Amino acid sequence: MLHVLAQGGCIRHEREGARIAAVLCFTRDGFVLADCTLEVFGKLRRKRLIASTNAQPYRISDRGRRAVRSQPDNR
Prior knowledge:
Blueprint (H helix, E strand, L loop, with lengths): L1 H5 L3 E7 L2 E8 L11 H9 L3 E2 L7 E2 L1 H6 L8
Antiparallel strand pairs: 1-2, 3-4
């Protein structure tokens, strides 16, 4: 998931009250990632690898960029 975010993707979230109820991870091309779950989202958020500013969709943080390893399929 971090590779998709590093390439320009985002995670959109839906709230029920104060809690996040659902998340969808979009690639920069607009496709939805199937393996994006609340559990994985929570782990990335706790490690501060993703962040949201001004109620925008979650994007990769500077800490997350440093944590991502290069892949041969990256552009």
